[in-house]
């Protein structure tokens, strides 16, 4: 496994601390006056979901976590249970808990492809630790309050509901039935997709 220097612990990297995988959510390298440089990070434990802050100094090294990735197909959610299958063998179905899905659940349409993240623990047992959706997804608007004529000059927004149940802020000209592109990492409206 590769060792990372303090200045290589950057956004979206996966590191291993005490045998647990962490994703770097934020990293800021700075130097205070006569002191040595340090990297102030925000880390998310991929097993428990807890977020912590940790500062790495110039002499620190950390192990890069070996995270496996593979594509699977999201089938459906029923009574709080989300079901998936292997892409090449639909008979191999399995369920994932909401704690593993995280915010990805808001943007998954039935029969869409998603990526799962796996981690081998010390016993060499593979565990599914997360689900990643594509960065941008197209979803239909199912609920939208009407825009008021003349409001568009201010460039305001309104909260609309998408086919997956997620709610986002979209421009006033978005109506029910429109297909919108969403950035799943920032939960923001990107653009209206031509029908």
Largest sheet: 6 strands, antiparallel
End-to-end distance, in Å? Answer: 47 Å
Question: Roughly how much helix do the residues carry, as a percent range?
Answer: under 10%
Beta-strand residue percentage: over 45%
Which residues form runs of ≥5 with pLDDT under 50? none
Query: What's the average pLDDT?
Result: 86
What spatial order of strands do you see in the largest sheet?
A: 1-6-2-3-4-5
Order of helices and strands: EEEEEEEEEHEEEEEEE
How is this structure best described in words?
This protein is mainly β. It is built from one helix and 16 strands. The longest helix has 4 residues, at 98-101.
Feature tags:
195 residues, mainly beta, 6-stranded antiparallel sheet
Task: Describe what is shown at a glance.
Helices cover 2% and strands 54% of the residues. The chain has 195 residues and is an all-beta fold.
Give the SSE map.
Elements: E1 3-5, E2 14-17, E3 20-30, E4 38-45, E5 51-57, E6 61-64, E7 67-78, E8 81-86, E9 93-96, H1 98-101, E10 112-120, E11 126-132, E12 136-143, E13 157-162, E14 167-171, E15 179-183, E16 188-193
């Amino acid at each position: 496994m590769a060792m990372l220097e303090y200045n290589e612990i950057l956004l979206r990297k996966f590191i291993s601390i005490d045998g647990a995988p962490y994703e770097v959510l934020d990293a800021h390298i700075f130097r205070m006056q006569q002191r040595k440089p340090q990297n102030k990070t925000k880390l998310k434990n991929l097993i428990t979901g807890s977020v912590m802050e940790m500062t790495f100094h110039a002499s620190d090294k950390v192990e890069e976590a070996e995270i496996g990735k593979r594509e699977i197909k999201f089938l459906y959610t029923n009574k709080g249970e989300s079901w998936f299958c292997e892409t090449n063998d639909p008979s191999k179905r399995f369920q994932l808990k909401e704690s593993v899905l995280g915010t990805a659940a808001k943007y998954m349409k039935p029969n869409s492809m998603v990526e799962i993240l796996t981690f081998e623990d010390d016993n060499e047992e593979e565990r599914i630790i997360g689900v990643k959706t594509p960065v941008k997804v197209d979803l239909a608007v199912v609920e939208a309050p009407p825009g008021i004529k003349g409001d568009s000059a201010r460039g305001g927004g309104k909260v609309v509901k998408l086919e997956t149940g997620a709610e986002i802020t979209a421009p006033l000209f978005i109506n029910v039935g429109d297909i919108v592109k969403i950035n799943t990492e920032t939960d923001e409206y990107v653009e209206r997709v031509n029908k």
